[in-house]
Amino acid sequence: MRALSGAIAELRDPRVPLIVTVERVSVTSDYGLARVYVSALGDMSGLMEALEQARGRLQREVARTVKLRRTPILEFYDASERLS
Question: Which domain, by its residues, includes 4?
Answer without folding.
Answer: 1-78
